[in-house]
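Annotated sample (chain length 249).
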Amino acid sequence: MIRKSLMLIYALISYAVATASLVYIMGFLADVGVPKGISDGAATTPWIAIVIDAGLVGLFGLHHSITARTSFKRWWTKIIPAPIERATYLYMTAIMTALLVTFWLPVPITVWQVHSDLAAGFMYAAYIAVWIMMSAATFHFGHFNFFGLEQAWQNFRQSPPKTSSMTARYLYALVRHPISLGWMAAPLVMPHLTVGHIVFAASTFVYIILATPFEEADLIDALGKPYIDYRKNVPTFVPFLKGPQSTRS
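Output written by the structure step:
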């Protein structure tokens, strides 16, 4: 019982750390309320900064892609107990977030700047709405499962793990990957958009486009024909857009 209790505490701390990391990234991109924003730090040659920053986003994405794959999880859970596998992933993600923020080099060249307070307020509201949308999307398939708490809680209670299933409702009836869509959109909804924001958004876009086929392959393996049918009827990223994007990964 002590071991199970420790796992639950481990997962609870992981949830707090993951939440803090997301809140920091929100402030980082908006340049608001954090010690270091996206335009803060020592200036250097723009092209050097762009290459390093794109590499940092790529490194963050590489960690996500490798550790999220089913084949990796099968190997990883031989080392890390399954009830805290997701929590451990979130600790690793927090470390990668810290590395990205710490070593990010600013490229504060203005792309556009909104001078109207009202217009800027609308853009910040839209930015917050994107993050609310991403948070809401986690509740579709289990918010506490997504953040590793449910697995530790089930282990603590000695309950059997829930089986995977899918339903195409709410945000997931509009697009297959609303969280990915949010990550691509969030850096661009800025009243003061800089080249640094563009680098973050473009690097994230490239990563998501490259990683999505692997994610969907895992989903097809886990869910089978229901997910194949779902792909045929629901677009990947752009709501209401039928055609090639709804049938490709």
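Annotation: The longest strand covers residues 110-113.
Annotation: Strands lie at 110-113, 192-194.
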